[in-house]
Amino acid sequence: LHSYAAVLQYDGTAYWGFQLQPAPQGRRAKPTVQLRVEQALCRATGQGRQALRVQAAGRTDAGVHARGQVVQFCCARRQGAAPLLRALNALMPPDIRAVAVQEVPLDWNVRYASRKTYAYDLHLDPVADPFLHRWRCHPRRPERLRLDAMADAAALFVGTHDFSRFANLGPDATRKSPVKTVLSYRLLPLEGGARLEVTGTGFLYKQVRHMTGALLAVGGGSLGADDIAAALAGGERARSAAQRNAFRGWQVAEARGLCLQQVVYAPWSSLGDLEPAAGGSGVVLAAVEEAPPGPRGVAA
Amino acid sequence: LHSYAAVLQYDGTAYWGFQLQPAPQGRRAKPTVQLRVEQALCRATGQGRQALRVQAAGRTDAGVHARGQVVQFCCARRQGAAPLLRALNALMPPDIRAVAVQEVPLDWNVRYASRKTYAYDLHLDPVADPFLHRWRCHPRRPERLRLDAMADAAALFVGTHDFSRFANLGPDATRKSPVKTVLSYRLLPLEGGARLEVTGTGFLYKQVRHMTGALLAVGGGSLGADDIAAALAGGERARSAAQRNAFRGWQVAEARGLCLQQVVYAPWSSLGDLEPAAGGSGVVLAAVEEAPPGPRGVAA
Questions:
Q1: Of residues A236 and B31, which shows the higher confidence score?
Q2: Which of A141, A168, A237, A300 is deepest in the core (most CB within 10 A)?
Q3: Contact yes or no for A97 and B295 at CB 8 A
């Protein structure tokens, strides 16, 4: 058995998120990125779907994009990385591209990233660009948005907090820790807009879209920086379903603005002194920091 | 009666071109940009579709985009330009935007442009960008494309020629002149690609895509600059249907790469010393030269 990691970029507009959705009875499975990747891999390798077990670093939601998604899968026979990359791109639809493929140790796990970076892109011109509307949120009255207040409030998220109030937590909420660390949260200029870029060790379900929604409420003046601080401080008291479902002072920001930019892993050495795969740097890196749309990622 | 001009930008991927298509019997009309603009204008002005008579500077084909399309329409009652712009953008789908609206003299005609600029965008990285594939053609073996040879061959088109061999001419081909003037044809760098930008006084049906196809054949080495020169010189002998349908040495370049960038009109004064509309500069200008996607056009 051989294990591979691939870096994917996709325009998520047409997909029901990354993860495979069970088909409603008598119907086809909804198109997801995972479905398209598995279909291409089956044809490229001649393997059955079950054997591949495609897993992703971040299970992006419906409509969310990626510039640096990392996926992992197994192959019974050794594959050349370059032919596998070409075959994937020949067999996947044009809104999903593989930009790097690399063999990884069998005990390497795509879920154990050391940090992830998400970008949330805003369009701030009065008239939204018809070529960008798939990837940028166009807030109401963009000319009134106070970007400086948003940048200041974003800094409040940096650090280790209980993010319970900034997530959609399921019934198993108590099983996983809602304490996460945000390493940086910046507001960057984009042509005609702005980007909120957040890096953290991990994120709860819909956490980035909750944080963005809160920051947009701050920018619009309906929420103050002190409300953000209070919601962060009050995280541990928000565990009941009623509290979680109450209006929190912001709307979850829409999916279209969100993009998984980069996933960073520790070098193999820290996973047990394993040899890096041939040609590998010892780190699977989705080294793609640019804006969607912008230049392409690392070549294989 | 009042006449208005509007500058439109659209992502043409989802549309059957600009012009209204007759509905096949028992079916709905195919979605075209004109259909969506007319539906929005009817709702915005309360007028019937017939009264509007929306006309475009260039009837872009299925899948072709625009950053500076200019359209003209009539309204029985005077409309404020700014409210009309807002209403249009509220009522049109997000892949069509109006970036400027202005009242024009009743005898002004959107079809009488003094020049038009089209851009044809190529993606030249080995792996095409999934965020750009809707607007860029990704030629086979882009790493082997000889851009310098393409730039040299593009210069051959500049001037006044019979472009019969570089067009799809219908049965009424003899009714209109196939002699057109190309004012400039440049190869510009794009991040991860290149743009072929051509400006002319007017273009035949599919002329830009024919010229692009010929230039791609030159870049790929299957055609020489002398073949281009010969096809231009032999234009007047290519009027028979058989000659027009014969393989010419190139494929018509695909629609996705093409974008109507700018339409320029002579000042009102040259149309009979009419006063420019309030706030107008005397010229309806789609002054949008940037790449799709890029910054937005002129504000109203």
A1: B31
A2: A300
A3: no
